[in-house]
């Protein structure tokens, strides 16, 4: 059931959410739906939709349909690990997940979720993915889920290019990439150009703003990707894209 799709503006939506307010943030609960069902989740790690299994419901269903045993998944902008846990369950012990996250608070929850679920197929890289191998300023945005690289940022973070990491053998070639980096998505793609051109991993891409959306679509089409909206909307009216090679 898509709990998150029930508007909080309706009476039913408000009644549905009211009991959630009294759950202590340190509580560890099982994820209730989807292929990550039963995995342990710390309530205070983010919105309740994570452990209710209804966060980004259409995207979660597509993730579950496309990722198979033995796949290699990059979770770029892993936050506290919802998609990391899901990808770990989907690709199984023969696959691998590489989770990229630069924010210390998020990393704490991400590593805790990996530990309490005893995941052995996940590696964490403490960095922001971009188009340079360097250091940069990062703004946490006052909300741990909307942090992004910014010249006026309050954190100094390491930045990495996917092309560099793959070329050096530090990480394997991905079969799938989930990218959600709050406006830095075009720079992620630029820093992954060789991997994308040679291997065409399937990409679950969140775009933030019309200009980044247009730039990303043009870039991916130039690399022979086909594009579709995750939600079924028109491509120019969505911010969730599936990019795939025919």
Write the layout of secondary structure elements.
Blueprint: H1 11-17, E1 28-30, E2 40-42, H2 49-52, H3 57-66, E3 72-76, H4 82-91, E4 96-100, H5 104-116, E5 122-125, E6 128-129, E7 134-139, E8 148-149, E9 155-160, H6 162-167, E10 176-179, H7 185-190, H8 193-199, E11 202-206, H9 210-222, E12 226-229, E13 240-244
Parallel strand pairs: 3-4, 3-10, 4-5, 6-9, 10-11
Antiparallel strand pairs: 1-2, 7-8, 7-9, 11-13, 12-13
Structure description:
The protein has a single domain (56-244), classed as Vaccinia Virus protein VP39 (Rossmann fold), CATH 3.40.50. The chain is 31% helix and 22% strand. The protein has 9 helices and 13 strands. The chain has a 7-stranded mixed β-sheet with strand order 5-4-3-10-11-13-12, with helices on both faces. Strands 6-9-7-8 form a 4-stranded mixed β-sheet. Strands 1-2 form a two-stranded antiparallel ribbon. The radius of gyration is 17 Å and the shape is globular.
CATH superfamily: Vaccinia Virus protein VP39
Strand content: 15-25%
Order of strands across the main sheet: 5-4-3-10-11-13-12
Order of helices and strands: HEEHHEHEHEEEEEHEHHEHEE
Termini, distance in Å? 32 Å
Number of helix segments? 9
What average pLDDT do the residues reach?
Answer: 91
What is the CATH-assigned architecture? 3-Layer(aba) Sandwich
Count of strand segments: 13
Could you describe the largest sheet, including whether it forms a barrel?
Answer: 7 strands, mixed
Backbone CA Rg: 17 Å
The assigned structural class equals alpha/beta
What is the general shape? globular
CATH topology: Rossmann fold
The CATH class name reads Alpha Beta
Helix coverage percent? 25-40%
Low confidence ranges: none
Counted up, domains total: 1
């Amino acid at each position: 059931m898509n709990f998150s799709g029930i508007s909080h503006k309706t009476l039913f939506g408000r009644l549905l959410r009211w009991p959630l307010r009294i759950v202590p943030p340190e509580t560890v609960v099982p994820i209730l739906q989807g292929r990550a069902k039963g995995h342990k989740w710390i309530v205070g790690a983010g919105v309740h939709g994570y452990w209710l299994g209804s966060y980004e419901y259409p995207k979660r269903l597509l993730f579950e349909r496309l990722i198979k045993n033995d796949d290699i998944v990059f979770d770029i902008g892993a936050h506290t690990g919802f998609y990391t846990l899901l990808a770990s369950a989907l690709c199984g012990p023969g696959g691998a997940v590489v989770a990229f996250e630069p924010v210390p608070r998020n990393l704490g929850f991400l590593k805790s979720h990996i530990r309490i679920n005893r995941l052995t197929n996940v590696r964490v890289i403490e960095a922001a993915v971009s188009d340079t191998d360097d250091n940069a300023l990062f703004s946490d945005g006052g909300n741990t889920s909307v942090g992004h690289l910014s010249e006026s940022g309050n954190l100094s973070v390491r930045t990495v290019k996917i092309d560099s990491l793959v070329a050096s053998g530090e990480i394997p070639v991905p079969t799938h990439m989930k990218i959600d980096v709050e406006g830095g998505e075009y720079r992620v793609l630029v820093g992954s150009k060789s991997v994308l051109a040679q291997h065409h991993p399937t990409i679950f891409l969140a775009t933030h703003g019309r200009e980044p959306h247009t730039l990303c679509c043009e870039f991916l089409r130039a690399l022979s990707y086909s594009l579709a909206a995750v939600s079924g909307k028109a491509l120019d009216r969505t911010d969730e894209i599936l990019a795939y090679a025919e």
